[in-house]
Design goal:
8 helices, six-stranded mixed sheet, alpha/beta, Nitrilase/N-carbamoyl-D-aminoacid amidohydrolase, 15 strands, 2 domains, single chain
Amino acid sequence: MGKLLRIALLAAVAVWLSASVLSAAAPDRQSRPGRPVKVAAIAIGCGGNHDAKLKLALEHLETAGSRGVDIACLPEEFAGFVGESIPGPTTKAVGELAKKYHMYVVCPIREQAGSRQYNTAVLLDRQGKVAGSYRKVFVFWGEKVNLGEDGVGVFDTDFGRIALLTCFDANFDEVWQEAERKGAEIVFWPSAYGGGMPLNGYAMIHNYYVVAVGWGNMIDVFGRTIEPAEKPRADQFLATLDLDLTIAHTNFNEKKVEQLLKEHPGEMERVPGNYEMESWFVLRAVKPGVRVRDLCKQYKIETLREYRQRSRQQINERRKERKTV
């Protein structure tokens, strides 16, 4: 076999292997109903020896990436409490696996920013580059780090909008409300503990998913705990969330929803369940490529979140003007 032919064949194999990894990590969402995103909670604990914990984290990310995860989240300060820059050695090592498997990774570290230190969650994109970061707003007593001053970190990804909150933030409802008002569809919560009931409450009130990465529990938009679909290794939990699942209030929407369902049979459905007390329609796509949110815009159907936010704004405007509603 000639030298040039061997080189060409090796190059072709490399391209095929690369394409295979990308295909596994980021499957064509147009071929599936709704807007699915596969998430991984990697609950390997806070702190510890940097090199040992980083090695463990990278092993977990290899596992998650090989299973087609869109975004993986590590716990707060998972590799210890020595400050480092952003980008730095930890984000670089984690970013290499993010790029290899074409997935986002939430990589929380102890950030060194000049003379200041922060408990910071770094978002790495599918190319392994820093896409944003969130400095913990409500720092726990005794952490000896500076307080985040930029509010809740909310970031747009290719699958939807996410927010990052950290550990002790669980005790302060204003940051969870801020995440909703900024449009978060998933809140990732890296933590040193499990969180429990308050997280279910925030998910229920604000109708976003919560991925809690203290103990690896996940919560749906109704505040219900999600059983992971996969547990490929100890302390790793995988699930697929549908960001297209749509809640709409019955107010002003009854006829529009009835028309929507009538004109799109076999494409979407009203989710079974008793939501009469809440006065909700809950809709989801059942046909690949269909997006309920797009159809709602077409039929001028407000989502529940849009309805609440518009109502809040307009009612408060009338309050200032001393007008009736």
